Amino acid sequence: MAIADVNDQNFGQETAEGLVLVDFWAPWCGPCKMIAPVLEELDGDMGDKVKIVKLNVDDNQETAGKYGVMSIPTLLLLKDGNVVDQVVGFQPKEALAELVNKHA
Description:
By secondary structure, the protein is α/β, with parallel strands linked by helices. It is built from 4 helices and 5 strands; from the N terminus they run E-H-E-H-E-H-E-E-H.
């Protein structure tokens, strides 16, 4: 499954069911650019367990504010619309896979 972009309007709908990993990012953020290929790999490996979406914090400040995102990249793991885990900063693929598996 491809990584989808979400926004303030469709965030609730896109994260309402199942396990969803949300990448809060911005185009100017260096670590966000570093984690993008890691998320692509994770999606290829675990796309059946978790849906991965990206939210640009510059364009969608309402959702970023609602979830208290202060630093990027922030990755929130939601299960059926509720936050079950969170990590801030660059993470290796193994750490993200472990995070997903803990809640899958």
